[in-house]
Amino acid sequence: MTSRPAARPRVPNFSSGPCAKRPGWTPAALADAALGRSHRSPLGKAKLKQAIDLTREVLRVPADYRIGIVPASDTGAVEMAMWTLLGPKTVEVAAWEAFGSEWVTDALKQLKISPRIHQTPYGVLPDLSAIDTKHNDVVFTWNGTAAGVKVPNGDWIAADREGLTICDATSAAFAQPMDWDKLDVVTFSWQKVMGGEAAHGMLVLSPRAVARLESHVPAWPLPKVFRLTKGGKLIEGIFSGDTINTPSMLAVEDYLDTLRWAGQIGGLDALHARADANASVIHDWVARTPWIANLAVDPATWSNTGVCLVIADADVLAKGDAVVARVAKGIVETLEREGVALDVGAYRDAPAGLRIWCGGTVERADLEALVPWLDWAFAQEKAKLAQAA
């Protein structure tokens, strides 16, 4: 039987959102927060503008793209883009997990625009070549947070496209290379890859997206928090720190801190390298461990952030889905009780299993220390099954 490991992760936080704080973080990082000040004061607006400027610097966003801080995290940013931009063209939505499915629901049932839907089960990327990116608008996630499945690259998107690409990149931005030339709208939240606190989302618009905003009047009502234009012109203030509604200045300071940290460690290349190295710890362990497998079927689509895993042990699988779910839950509960891994259960709508965050704010040494505990926790569950037999 697998022996109980001696070494423990220094930081047991492997949640897929809110994600682990950057290494060395303490509440002292927030000492300069503009608390008790209006976000519209010179100080408040300066900090929001700095968050936009550092985002552009770290992510290497093209100079002619607008970056705005908007309400309701990544979800708010995606829905703001859909409500304000869709309508003039046929819409195609790609979905292979819970969050992509939400955008299908929005398009189909809320906006009622009869989209072309490309939907596959968890673990499998849709056939991207079947999406008409040349003529139509496209809504998709770059990295499926709940499935651990990413698009390998942007090669499938037409360079001479007539429509817009709206990309939910919340678990990809800062961790995976993204082809800005192929993306017209990019959204993400502070609490994912950079380990900030949940608050506002980020909305990045290409010049083509801005032109659509200024030429298109949606057929449906727009809530105030979704409105990006006034008198047919972009509300430029949103993209210079004049947010639509009140952000948490404490959360703003936290985002600024993690952006500064990114610059200190080497910027985007360093963030990508950290996520890749972290994910390789888990993927290499899976390759040599018969009881576990990647939920993502094609290695080219394996995520380097939220790595999603399923039970592959033949004895457990033979006992049916209920037992598989019980074993997965038991592993999660054991790891949390031992204080070595917190919040590593699969997303509630995903197949039963584990989800381990490997983004750049996680330390590789903590993942290396976690792996033996995963084997040990599974062994405990197998022993329980043997005793019950």
Automatic annotation (TrEMBL):
It is an enzyme of class 2 (transferase). One of its GO terms (molecular function) is transaminase activity. CDD domains: AAT_I. The keyword Cell wall biogenesis/degradation does not apply. Its cofactor is pyridoxal 5'-phosphate. It catalyses: O-phospho-L-serine + 2-oxoglutarate = 3-phosphooxypyruvate + L-glutamate. Pathway: Amino-acid biosynthesis; L-serine biosynthesis; L-serine from 3-phospho-D-glycerate: step 2/3. Transmembrane segments: none annotated. InterPro entries: Pser_aminoTfrase, Pser_aminoTfrase_methanosarc, PyrdxlP-dep_Trfase, PyrdxlP-dep_Trfase_major, PyrdxlP-dep_Trfase_small. Keywords: Amino-acid biosynthesis, Aminotransferase, Cytoplasm, Pyridoxal phosphate, Serine biosynthesis, Transferase. Coiled coil: none annotated. Its EC number is 2.6.1.52. Belongs to the class-V pyridoxal-phosphate-dependent aminotransferase family. SerC subfamily. NCBIfam families: PRK03080.1-2, serC_2. PANTHER family: ALANINE--GLYOXYLATE AMINOTRANSFERASE, AMINOTRANSFERASE CLASS V. This is phosphoserine transaminase. It comes from Methylobacterium trifolii. The gene is serC.
